[in-house]
Amino acid sequence: MKANVNFDLESELKAHLNYFIQQNNLPADFLLKQNPQIDREFEVSEKSWIARATPKVPAKVIVKASVRYWEDSTINGIEDTDSGDKTPCKNGDLWCPVINVATGIIENWEIGKTASIHFKVADGCGWELVDSIGNTIKSQDDGYVPKTLCPAENGYGDYIIMNIDEKGQIEKWRFDIDDFLEDE
Question: For a FRET experiment, which of 3, 39, 147, 161 has its CA 20 to 30 Å from that of 127?
Answer without folding.
Answer: 3
